[in-house]
């Protein structure tokens, strides 16, 4: 009888030990190494760049650029110059010319150099002219050449807001417009 009880207890203990041995418990498991996965995901979010291939130093493929030749490069340079706009700093002292600009609303005619913009010239007279960015990026400083197509009277160092048709109607950005002729200007005019 006692033996049977001891045997039963022994068997129960064995069963418990075996069950504990195979149970998973809450042991700490080292996470899988996901660094490679993270790197790949990050790489997917970065746009492809035009890094030159080894032995190919021209961006976008050296072979093609060589084949295109000098003519096309010349055209590209020309386009860049056009987009960059006129640079008043490139006018040397002996190239500076002055034009008679009538500021209609202010009721005065002043001389403005071809390396001075219409806004600065007006402010030098003490006039409170409108402006915001002073970089050709808004319309706050807009004015209008009374005499017609503004292309014939000013050149812009930067114009990011006026369309070509608006410039042809006489509109200018006074903060980036430099005179190339005499004309009458209405300040505070926008299309
Ligand atoms: S002040 Fe913004 S374009 Fe002249």
TrEMBL record:
This protein's UniProt keywords: 2Fe-2S, Electron transport, Iron, Iron-sulfur, Metal-binding, Transport
The keyword Iron appears for this protein: yes
Record Gene3D superfamilies: 3.10.20.30
Signal peptide start-end: none
UniProt GO MF annotations: 2 iron, 2 sulfur cluster binding; metal ion binding
Cofactor section: [2Fe-2S] cluster
Pfam families reported for this sequence: Fer2
2Fe-2S ferredoxin-type domain: residues covered: 99-191
InterPro entries for the chain: 2Fe-2S_ferredoxin-like_sf, 2Fe-2S_ferredoxin-type, Beta-grasp_dom_sf, Fd_pln
Spans through the membrane: none
Key word Metal-binding present: yes
UniProt record similarity statement: Belongs to the 2Fe2S plant-type ferredoxin family.
Name of the protein: 2Fe-2S iron-sulfur cluster-binding protein
């Amino acid at each position: 009888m006692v033996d049977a009880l001891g045997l039963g207890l022994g068997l129960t203990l064995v069963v418990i030990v075996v069950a504990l041995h195979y149970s998973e418990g809450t042991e700490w498991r080292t996470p899988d190494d996901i660094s490679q996965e993270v790197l790949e995901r990050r790489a997917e979010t970065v746009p492809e760049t035009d890094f030159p291939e080894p032995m190919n130093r021209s961006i976008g493929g050296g072979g093609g650029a060589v084949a295109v030749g000098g003519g096309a490069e010349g055209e590209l340079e020309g386009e860049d110059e056009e987009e960059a706009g006129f640079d008043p700093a490139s006018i040397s002292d002996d190239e500076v010319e002055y034009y008679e600009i009538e500021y209609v609303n202010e009721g005065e005619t002043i001389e403005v150099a071809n390396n001075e913009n219409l806004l600065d010239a007006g402010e030098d007279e003490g006039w409170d002219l409108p402006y915001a960015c002073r970089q050709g990026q808004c319309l706050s400083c807009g004015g209008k050449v009374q005499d017609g197509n503004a292309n014939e009277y000013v050149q812009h160092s930067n114009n990011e807001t006026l369309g070509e048709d608006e410039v042809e109607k006489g509109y200018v950005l006074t903060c980036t417009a430099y005179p190339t002729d005499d004309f009458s200007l209405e300040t505070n005019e926008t299309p």
